[in-house]
Amino acid sequence: MRPLPRLTLLLFLGICLAIPATGARAIPAGSARLTPVVRVAQAAAPAVVNITSASRAGRERLSPLERFFGPLPDRPGERGGKRVSLGSGVIVDGGRGLVLTNAHVVAGGDEIMVHLQDGRDFPARVLGAEPDFDLAVLEIPGASGLPSARLADAGDLMPGETVVAIGNPFGFTHTVTTGVISALGRSIRNEGGMLTDLIQTDAAINPGNSGGPLLDLDGRIIGINTVLDARGEGIGFAIPAGKARRVLDDIMAGSRSAPLWLGVLGQDVDGATARALGIEPAGVLVREAVAGTPAARAGVLPGDILLSLNGTALRDGRDLVNALRNQMPGERVRLALRRNDATRGVDLTPVPLEDAQARRLMERRWGFAVKGGKGAPVVSAVTPGGPASFLRPGDAVAGASGRRTTTPDDLLAVFRRERLAPEVLLQVVREGRLHQARLVP
Questions:
Q1: 24, 200, 434, 438: which sits with the fewest CB atoms below 10 Å from its CB?
Q2: Is 104 tagged catalytic?
Q3: Whole-prediction pTM value?
């Protein structure tokens, strides 16, 4: 084939460039193609961002002491390549450059970038994260002219109403999917604990959608997409906008509410307890409803067995703690309990477990007190004959339940999470040697 003359080739290219790209032509305002879903996508997509979170990978192997106190001064630091994770987010305040996303999207990230639909890329920083709610707030400093989407105010969601999800599944940016609200008030367990009061949707949500918005047909953000159920198609979950707004406000105000509790001390209904009581091995057997707490005021008694919270079955004490960690302050919960072979429901409002009360409970339940020390809290007192009688004053508690503890507050945070656990594994440093110690409350 003879090559085209230069002039002919230039004319051919000019004709091609003059042809508008597919979809670039304006659609008439009254066109039936401009459905409510299309309008939502057009309005909200510019505020949806693709998030890349890079973290340095590859650490030198650390000794047991270094795992809790950090690398020794003569050890090399991190080296190796970078691990990059992908997720989504949505700009909720363009003027201040605030982005809502999932906490797990940016967890451990050293370098975070947000990528807009208009092609702009910005570095971002984490203003705050609440892993219990799987929410984080990012800031895009110095950016101007940012779009934003509106968080819904009212909790007026209806099962069956149409919803739109926008995100970056598998790295395919600004993917729009649609479906309906399948159910409300769902609870699911994850590695970090439990997420409650979720929106269930059949809008396609895949890896990479995490942190992106779930929108109603008014274009409001009604939820932040968080997880999908790998067991089947059409089952995804989103964190309601009400929780997202509360976390956003708390982070921006620099405040954080103490974890909630009902005022119950108890134990798991294990196999031996279940056989003795002639019941199934599940739930929490109440030992004490602490005076003045919601449980005591609601009439919960020693010997009651707590079965469920807001309809979610409680397998053990950790389930109860995890479910409360994801509750919003001031909201009432429904507790189902068994008493004298009968099941009854109790409505009560959890309250914050403040530091002073948590310390007193830790000393009672775990049988020791601590004070500040160099690199780890130091045991200051041990209850004679108590569950921690193996400890000595002066021992350093370098970790508990697999979590490093560098201050008394760190240990208190572990106690709040493990206060109903049947046993706790402590990492204790005595005379320069690391010991593992099993504490049974």
A1: 24
A2: yes
A3: 0.77
